[in-house]
What we know:
The protein is mainly beta. The protein is built from 1 helix and 51 strands. The longest helix is centred in the first third of the chain and has 12 residues.
Amino acid sequence: MTDSQGTGLSRRSLLQAAGATAAAYTLLGAATGTASADDRPEAADRLVVYPVPTGLPLNASFSVKARTPGGEWQPVPVLRARTKTINEKTGSGIVRSSSVANLDFTGTVEVRVTSSKGAVPSARIRPQSYDIAHEVSGDSITFSLTEPRNLSIEIGDADGGAFDLYDNLQLHANPIEKWRPEEDDPDVIYFGPGIHTVTDNVVKVPSGKTVYLAGGAVLKARVEFTGVENARLLGRGIIYDSDAATLVAFSKNIEIDGILALNPKTGYSCTIGQSKQVTVRNLHSYSFGQWGDGIDVFSSEDVLIEGVFMRNSDDCIAIYAHRWDYYGDCRNVTVRNSTLWADVAHPVNMGTHGNPEKPEVIENIVFSNIDVLQHREPQVLYQGCFALNPGDSNLIRNIRIQDVRVEDFTWGQLLNMRVMANRYNASPGRGIEDVYVRNLTYDGTHASMAILTGYDADRPIKNLTFQNLSVNGTVVHDKMKKPGWYLTTDMVPMFANEHVQNLRFLDADTAAATTAPEITSSAEVTATKKRVFNHLVTASALPTSFAAEGLPKGLSFDTKTGLISGVPSVPGSCTVTVSATNSAGTATQSLKLTVQHP
């Protein structure tokens, strides 16, 4: 396959190359869906299993079958993912094989997972918050799903403990695609079933184009959006064994949806640098290389990350200001409805990199409805399921971490908030301000002491509120029953130094605010017709819910995060009334929203 560098892949050469790869293509699964737009009722029971091309490594630890209720069982291919942990005695990496399976469905799907090792003593399906009922019989685990889920199926011992975190099965049960392009669409760079390579191992996407990886397509190249607008990467295909998987740099209105990033040789699964209006949805990422981050956001605005499953050999999600060629503040980033698994480093890391010569701000960051399945990091200074670590004169402010469930992890801290200067930094950070951690639950025994440390009196942590923080079933709050000489932080446990100001622990019913909020987000925004759009409504004084009235067609509102998102379908201007509510009152604002032509 060829790459014309300046204008992307030519249509004719792409189709010719696809035909060449198809000759070496063998179906290992059966696709049961149509190849065009799908307007069938979403409630109907339907299953799509995609084929896997010959040459893509499989894993034999499990076999998987699926069916609609009463239907025939269909085999689901099981791919080999690579994972890495660190040998804490030598610093070397330990690389293991794991299993990944994918299917699409609507309605109800039944799944049977069979272990190649024989009888299954016990099993669990995570995230545990899904509470998925399952039956273990002989060498098989059977369960049903009624909505899309990203799952880890793990085998344990006869006592129901010591579950295998490495030779496990990850199952991605996706929604069925609502739109699939035709192969001859002039605005689409189409990769059909088979293994594809391109010149220089990079697909450079022009403005206005969509790269489509069909189910069964494997692309051994990075997909790159650099200096472009209104472009997309969609499908159910795989980016495999590439130098990084996706790059969004100096771009606007970019969408990535439904892709599996499997075993990149180097680099991050997704880099977002100095870009605006970026949506990453339903991305599944596995890495085993050094610095094998999942999604890293640098100096960008209006970013939505949702429905992702990240299993990485470094930070799953990292949010920074300046690094390399990216400059400027980073703001209005929403991460929601996602699952994070860090075999190395942090599930979430924020603030390390910035520009001391022109200090930057990382602000208005929301993590909502998150399951953390693993954190394993021997280095104390790189621990924390949620790490807010501003260096390089960065200031972190206006952060919300809400509705988060942290399962028992192997090695590390629940939280690490430090204004710091480490070996990557030319100067300390300027501080951490106005952080609201609400409805965070940790159940487990392996967490080390959490850390909260300001750098000095001029670079503190201030206005940090924990509400309904639950540790092993106990809500930690300032009025809880405890010895009078104990600090509330002792009950976590957590260390806070003298440079932490206005630290509060509240129960679920205590009012977090004494004054009504004020809307702080823009009163005027512009979207583009038929392109992804994100606008985060922000407010002061710890709002707990949001509302919006008068949204144009194609946009929806998240009352928990304050995010307006979607794809507007009709150009024009309208006035949307947005509001933010806390225990003391409600603030409203008229938002002028203009939808322009591409």
